[in-house]
Amino acid sequence: MGIRTAFLTVLKYTLNPLTLRAARSGRGPFSLVRHVGRKSGQTFETPVILARRADGFVAELTYGTQVNWYRNIVAAGHCDVVYKGVEHHIDRIEPCSTEEGLKAFGNPRAIVLRILRRHEFRCLHEAPSADT
């Protein structure tokens, strides 16, 4: 097991349970991404920090594109996001430029992301609601 894999495993069993509780409460910076496993077919919830925009959300891929939640939503082409306690259906995942991603997060978060040299963002497009 590589150092990166070991680190992500530690996060999965230590930090993620705490951030899941925060995300489920609808308070704090965390949202939930509900996704179905590519191989297991099991539903998972992963805490992430998202930025809201008019057509959906922006995710910064802190741990890159090889994390399971991201691979699962790309394979499925959709997922659900629980943002501030409200569920939103995502019908499309697309690359997002660094400029667009930073703009969506706004300051001071964009400043921190610049300092950390984060540049990998994805747009999570929200499906039109049945009401419209």
Secondary-structure map with pairings?
Elements: H1 3-13, H2 15-25, E1 31-36, E2 43-48, E3 50-53, E4 56-60, H3 68-76, E5 79-83, E6 86-96, H4 98-105, H5 109-115, E7 121-126
Antiparallel strand pairs: 1-2, 1-5, 3-4, 4-7, 5-6, 6-7
Helix pairs in contact: 4-5
Keywords for this entry:
7-stranded antiparallel sheet; alpha+beta; 132 residues; 7 strands; 35% helix
The secondary-structure element order is: HHEEEEHEEHHE
Q: Low-confidence stretches at least 5 residues in length (pLDDT < 50)?
A: none
Shape: globular
Largest sheet: 7 strands, antiparallel
**Quaternary form:** single chain
Query: So how many helices?
Result: 5
Which class of secondary structure composition applies to the elements?
alpha+beta
Radius of gyration: 15 Å
| Terminal Cα span | 49 Å
Describe the overall structure.
With 132 residues, this protein is an alpha+beta fold. It contains 5 helices and 7 strands, in the order ααββββαββααβ. The protein has helices at 3-13, 15-25, 68-76, 98-105, 109-115; strands at 31-36, 43-48, 50-53, 56-60, 79-83, 86-96, 121-126. The protein has a 7-stranded antiparallel sheet, with helices on both faces. A hairpin with a 2-residue loop joins strand 5 (79-83) and strand 6 (86-96). Helix 4 (98-105) packs across helix 5. The longest helix is centred in the N-terminal third of the chain and has 11 residues, at 3-13. The model has no long low-confidence stretch (mean pLDDT 91).
